[in-house]
Design a protein that fits this description.
Elements lengths: L7 E5 L4 H12 L3 E6 L2 H11 L2 E4 L5 H9 L5 E6 L14 H25 E12 L10 H21 L3 E7 L5 H7 L3 H11 L8 H13 L7 E4 L17
Parallel strand pairs: 1-2, 1-4, 2-3, 4-5, 5-6, 6-7
The structure holds NADP nicotinamide-adenine-dinucleotide phosphate (NAP).
Length: 248
């Protein structure tokens, strides 16, 4: 098992939630960090806390993504992609231009990042994507999130073959208690937490540190490539109080 000590970890979406928590754990393991986000204030806070290099980066901007990788001090050891928000909309109300942008960002964006890795990531290093478990739980408004979540395992497996010996894996998360979940749920957040505590097989809410622990493992366990790993506290095994499978 590799250690993260002395390695360089790049986290796209490293200023909040899962990405920030992974950065904290990698920092504690003595890794050097390069973190991206879209908000300068959050980048500054992450840099102050973790001594990280930072860069403003919008995932949907293909040219900026190329520039970011071109300017990275190479080789890096690990890349985690934990940004790009979900987009929920019933089909009847779907804004197709926005949908196209979201799919481009999630699907082609993942391939654009994969394309950069062979020349930027050292052999045996890793690329890890973060997605959701939506693909297995159909629901109103979830089509686009489901398409992205269904595609990521295929992108991951194919990239693992093409990028070898760089390893490629994905994390499929259920509800994670992050600022994103707080923004999406608003006043419903506490109720959702209570519901999950009462019903999840693990009897607690999954937090960003739980997902970060898996991300760290995928970086350091050199036997792992090409697979998608669930972290949802058993959420997909249960039904919600509305009679549907639970969603984030
Ligand atoms: N939380 C959940 O329940 C859950 C469940 C399944 C999957 N996920 C997925 O896991 C990933 C991380 O989620 P999170 O809950 O940790 O979210 P979060 O707390 O909002 O953090 C997201 C991070 O990504 C950055 N980011 C967001 N959109 C971006 C974009 N378009 N381009 C570049 N950077 C972007 C944010 O930077 P700024 O703050 O500067 O914008 C921030 O650093 C997301 O892809 C999310 O869809 C989350």
């Amino acid at each position: 098992m590799d250690s993260l000590s002395g390695s360089t970890v790049v986290i796209i979406g490293g200023t909040s939630g899962i990405g920030l928590e992974t950065a904290r754990q990698a920092h504690a393991a003595e890794a050097k960090l390069v973190l991206t986000g879209r908000n300068q204030e959050r980048l500054g806070a992450a840099s102050d806390e973790l001594g990280a290099s930072t860069a403003l980066l919008e995932l949907g901007d293909a040219a900026a993504l190329r520039r970011f990788f071109a300017e990275l001090p190479v080789p890096v050891d690990h890349v985690l992609v934990s940004g790009g928000g979900p987009f929920y909309s019933p089909i009847a109300e779907l804004d197709f231009d926005r949908a196209l942008g979201v799919l481009d960002e999630h699907l082609l964006g993942s391939l654009r990042i994969a394309r950069e890795c062979p020349t930027r990531v050292r052999p045996g290093g890793s690329l890890t994507f973060v997605t959701g478990t939506h693909a297995r739980r159909p629901g109103v408004g979830l089509s686009l999130a489901a398409i992205a979540a269904a595609a990521l395992p295929a992108i991951t497996a194919n990239a693992a073959v093409e990028l070898a010996p760089v390893r490629v894996n994905a994390i499929a998360a259920g509800f994670v208690d992050t600022p994103l979940s707080a923004r999406l749920l608003g006043d419903e957040l506490d109720h959702r937490r209570e519901q999950l505590r009462a019903t999840l097989p693990i009897r607690r809410v999954v937090g960003p540190a739980d997902v970060a622990a898996l991300a760290r493992h995928l970086m350091t366990n050199t036997a792992l490539t090409g697979a998608t790993y669930d972290v949802d506290g058993g959420q997909q095994l249960i039904m919600s109080e509305k009679g549907q499978h639970d969603g984030p």
